[in-house]
Every structure is written in C-alpha cells, then in structure tokens.
Amino acid sequence: MPVLSKKKHSSIMRELERRIDNLRTLLTPNELKYANEGCKNKQHWAYPDNMCKTTGRDYEIRLATEDFKNILSEIKKLK
Questions:
Q1: Series of mean pLDDT values for 10-residue runs along the chain (79 residues)
Q2: How many Cα neighbours within 13 Å face the side chain of 18?
Q3: b/e per residue, 3-42, with b = 16+ CB within 10 A?
Q4: Which among 7, 25, 36, 39 counts the fewest CB atoms within 10 Å?
Q5: Exposed (0-12), middle (13-18) or buried (19+): which is 64, by Cβ within 10 Å?
C-alpha cells in the first residue's frame, strides 16, 4: 500500500478529477444537424437518429486521452 503526503494525495486527486471531467466534456453527445454530418463523399447515415457527434473534435479527444493516460501513469508509479 503506497504512503504519500496528504498534499500529494490531494494534488493527484484534483488532477485526476480535472482530466476525467475534461474527457467527459469532450465526449458529451450532440444531435446531428444533417443526415450526412461526419460522412465522406456525399454519403449519409442510414439511420441518422441513431447517431450522435461529440462536443470535442478528434484531436481534442486524442490530447485529452493522452493527458488522462499521463495522470494514470503517475498513479501507477506510487510506491
């Protein structure tokens, strides 16, 4: 069982919560405005009502995921 200062523990918990909240915000679903939104080559979704888009762009989600992985790796290092 790792032992760490309360200050370090509090810092880790704040960062973990901040990064989870950021990722959740970016993944929040939104309704499509058009049946072909997100499709390529003038295609459209067969059932657009079954589809949603995220609030965040693809690169924002990738960055937030990497950021989240970093805090997890810090937690993994606790001894």
A1: 93 96 97 90 90 96 96 92
A2: 9
A3: eeeeeeeeeeeebeeebeebbeebeeeeebeeeeeeeeee
A4: 7
A5: buried
